[in-house]
Amino acid sequence: MAAVGGYAGGVYLRSGTEGLLRMAVLTGLPGPLFRPWWRMHVNRPYPVAEAYRSGQAVHLADADSAMRRFPQLMAGLPFPFASLYEPVTADGRRFGVLLALRTATPGVPVGAADRERLREAADRLAQELAALEAAGDPVVWDGDPVSVRPPPAGHEEPRKAVDRLPQALISVDREGRIDFVNSAAEDLLGRGAPQVLGQVAWEALPWLGHPAYEDHLRAVFMSTEPVHFAARRGWNPPGDWLSVGLYPGPDGVTLTIGAAEKPAYAPASMVRPGAGLGSPADRASALYRPVALAIALTEAVTARQVSAVVTEELLPAFGGRQLAIYLLNERHLHLAWETGFPAGFLTRFDGVGLDARLPGVETLTSGRPLFFESMQHLAAAYPGIPLDADVGARAFLPLIASGRPVGSCILGFDAPRGFSPEERTVLTALAGLIAQALERARRYDSEAALARGLQAALLPHRLPVLDHVETVGRYLPGTQGMDVGGDWYDVIETGAGLLALVIGDVQGHGVAAAATMGQLRSAVRAFALSGSTPEEVMSGTNQLLIDLDPGQFASCCYVLLDPVTGGARAVRAGHPQPLLRHPDGRTEVLELAGGVVLGIDPEASYPVTEMRLATGSVLALYTDGLVEKPGTDIDAGVEGLRLSLAAARPSPLTETADRLIGEAGNTADRPDDIALLLASRTP
């Protein structure tokens, strides 16, 4: 941190949960104040996650560059600061990410010397972690971060000079712990210096830790610019108004606190505060949560993804513990998502009609949100309603998009709490965002169902059963975006005793890609059945795609096999090289000559490669979705597939296919679909 002129830093490491990074070490920041960022999923659009996924450093010199590349980061931490993220990797193994925060340098990129220093530090750390892993340590982190306290910088303030000030002056270190107070501060605290030194400032001054002031505290620790605001000393009974100044530096923050008049404008939550939005350790500021939720919702395309985003973003913001989403379908509400409720409790309300007297129904039919500050208030408003707990609070929000009812949302809290006017406004606005996202998800589901049905009709329902050759095909749709692509495979009996093995991939996703795939599959089948040679099949299909002009291109691999002799002639158009597992287990990547992808060049030629499949050998044709992963080289994916095929001992071909496709099929947020075709010579 010091080497790059930083004032805070830390390390994220892999956790025991697949795809989740956890902060392991933190210095220069009060850890509890930044609890929402202790956990980071590798698929989230944040710089830590990108550095880990891609294996490339991320350098953000100022807030503008961070906002352009990572708007969600700045939605949560809208302060002027620079941040540097360096992946911690050794010998191809990814352990985590090293980060440093420092003063923003608007318009001036991070210098080469600082980049090199950070890279060297990450390399040293990676080598140490690799040595631990080699010694049997799994190098995963599942606890809270260790807070590393920088050594005290010492104090040279002339005591007499600061004691003359009428203002309270408090100096805290980078963790927020008090290391100096003047006489006015001792009077404000009601205790002498020996009793408060080492305490966290907002614990020594509880009113300073109110949720209304959290963003001010975060801002001064994240950036190097001073912050000024009016605060109220105590809430019950209401205390005096105070003027608070925060002055940050590399080794700490100086607080000045003096008397002030009531501000001309103060939010109602400051004048008449309720329970707030949660403790400083558990929530993120309500000022940026609507922005963060809106950005996250734009990336969610299914109802399940929308619900997951609401769980991740909305519950922590308000300290909630339970969430349920009901969707309207033909005048009945059906449970679409739940978390935190006792198992089976909500099923009794699944399918209720719009005439039922239930808060989840009436909030939708009336269009008004309903807030109950305790379970007793809920029971009094709806006598006889089943309750999942005796203690807590509930909020029922209508989900209405452009005047159309979509459903209702239930937020649950473990303890009674008030809902300030600001909170009610924010929650109502967020419900509108959620409704819009769910309505969009419904349209997506309809389109995806159409595309899935189209593709299912176009893919072969069964493969031919032949002597001397066994074939197995597998297809998996992607789990992101339209969910359906243009991958296909086919096995064709040509009528001349030969067998055509085909695999292809149309660019893009959705109905258009599936339709183009169906046309190409039909064309290849027609050429093959007419007795065309492999090069004629590929050239004819290329010309057809150019004539159709769908604005798409496709890759393809075509193998014409003699099942009796094992002789084969193969042709390839921009498609990944097949794999061949020999009877002795040796597995190689075939080097087939190839031409450009289909649909680009009407004069393209497609050379043929001749080869032979011995009895007991296995030929694997696949699309790039099986070997291409974000942030990794496709060659590494091909090598991993080769090793998996080599490790597949002689076994039923169906088991081999399931093994090869299983790992990719279990990957969350897989952007591309996958097709796999295996062919084996049998005695």
Which fold name fills CATH's third level, the topology of the largest domain? Phosphatase 2c, domain 1
Tally of individual domains: 4
**Number of contiguous helices:** 19
Report helical residue fraction. 25-40%
Name some characteristics of this structure.
19 helices; alpha+beta; seven-stranded mixed sheet; Beta-Lactamase; 4 domains; 27% strand; 683 residues
Protein described:
- Helix 11 packs parallel to helix 15 and helix 16 packs antiparallel against helix 17 (534-548).
- The chain has four domains: 2-147, 2-Layer Sandwich (Beta-Lactamase), CATH 3.30.450.40; 159-262, PAS domain (Beta-Lactamase, 2-Layer Sandwich), CATH 3.30.450; 290-450, GAF domain (Beta-Lactamase), CATH 3.30.450; 459-681, PPM-type phosphatase domain (Phosphatase 2c, domain 1, 4-Layer Sandwich).
- It contains 19 helices and 29 strands.
- The longest helix is centred in the middle third of the chain and has 38 residues, at 421-458.
- The chain is globular and about 100 Å long.
- With 683 residues, it is an alpha+beta fold.
